[in-house]
Design brief:
Helix content is about 50%, strand content about 15%. It contains 16 helices and 8 strands. The longest helix has 19 residues. Bound molecules: 2'-deoxyinosine and zinc ion. Keywords: Hydrolase, Metal-binding, Nucleotide metabolism, Zinc.
Length: about 350
């Protein structure tokens, strides 16, 4: 890949359907929040870089280790102001990669340690995204996460709170956290309620757990999309299920390699999935924890998997199809993607 091709990749329109709020906080923002909230930071000098505390390195061996990075930021994300600022800045970061649309996910229950309710957390995250939409001309929605280690009772409450904001900033609900320790079936009742409310569902599955979790997420929890899903390679019948149900996969290449969901770029199954006719999307997962951006994800695919500009453009078209938007909004997004691609001669 030469310099001119990298420049072209930057210009491609993009869509990020899988990005976590708490995994994408800018290190300088944490420094500011620590100061304004009067909280200590574990660094000697005011100017020390916080990135090493927030970003995973090559030594990461598992999803559980990867998830430990979130403990650092959460204490600073317990107020209305912090959620609004961080949400707005995610839209700013998405704009820097030329994203037209972003679905930002977060677990409201993780932001209720200092008095906010789950509903307040959703309200303020939406407010921040709205500010970002205005400032950076990127469309943004929220996906509300239930945590796998959490109780059924709490997760039912989270689903109720999500329902109140559905169509008013919330686009869907999700299940995230330690997949190996907590299979999707544990939360069947939670997603039954989400289905009853007609909330669209995506589930993290087939990342740190086997392909059967993907089957369970689709057939028993009502998932309309799957977060990651890279491990469906383990079972041809699950590959077939994903294909026949046209269930989009929200793949996150850089993160998938860091968490060892796959062994490396040489075995990354994205090209295979596309060739098999699976609807594949590419996303960042956690911009700060993974040290990534949508630009970088696309560059990596070009470099390691030989993706052409046309193939990368197809990923954005796929994401527009997979977006949790109304048919009308989806048509607008499709049109915006098409126009941007036409300008590039694609
Ligand atoms: O890739 C992931 N898999 C499972 N859970 C994840 C991943 N990235 C972030 N999370 C968790 C940790 C966060 O605190 C939580 C809410 O965003 O979601
Ligand atoms: Zn994720």
């Amino acid at each position: 890949m030469n310099q001119a091709q990298y420049e072209q990749i930057k210009l491609l329109p993009k869509i990020d359907l899988h990005v976590h709020l708490d995994g994408s906080v800018k290190p300088d923002t944490i420094r500011d929040l620590a100061k304004s909230q009067g909280k200590a930071l574990p660094v000697a000098s005011e100017n020390d870089d916080l990135t090493p505390w927030m970003q995973i390195d090559e030594s990461c061996t598992s999803l559980v280790e990867y998830l430990s990075k979130f403990n650092f930021v959460l204490p600073f994300m317990q107020t209305a102001e912090s959620l609004e600022r961080i949400a707005e800045e995610i839209v700013e970061q998405a704009a820097a990669s030329n994203c037209l649309y972003v679905e930002v996910r977060f677990a409201p229950i993780l932001h209720t340690l200092e008095g906010l309710s789950a509903s307040d957390a959703i309200k303020h995250t939406i407010a921040g995204l709205r500010r970002g939409e205005q400032m950076f001309d990127v469309k943004a929605r929220v996906i509300v996460i239930c945590m796998r280690h959490d109780s059924i009772e709490n997760n039912l409450e989270v689903i109720d709170a999500a329902r109140d904001y559905y169509g008013k900033g919330v686009a869907a609900v999700d299940l995230a956290g330690d997949e190996a320790g907590f299979p999707p079936g544990l939360h069947r009742e939670v997603f039954e309620r989400a289905s009853k409310y007609n909330l669209p569902i995506t589930i993290h599955a087939g990342e740190a757990g086997g392909s059967n979790n993907v089957r369970e997420a689709i057939t028993e929890l009502g998932a309309a999309r799957i977060g990651h899903g890279v491990r469906i390679t383990e079972d041809p019948s699950v590959m077939e299920l994903v294909k026949s149900t046209r269930t989009p996969l929200e793949m996150c290449p850089v993160s998938n390699i860091q968490t060892k969901a796959v062994s490396g770029w040489d075995t990354y199954p994205i090209r295979r999935f596309m060739e098999e006719g699976i609807l594949v999307t590419v996303n960042t997962d956690n911009m700060t924890v993974s040290g990534t951006t949508m630009n970088l994800e696309f560059e990596m695919l070009a470099e390691h998997c030989g993706f052409t500009l046309e193939e990368l453009a197809q990923l954005t078209r796929n994401s527009a199809e997979a977006a949790f938007l109304s048919e009308e909004e989806k048509s607008e997004l499709r049109e915006a993607v098409q126009q941007a691609l036409q300008k590039l001669g694609l």
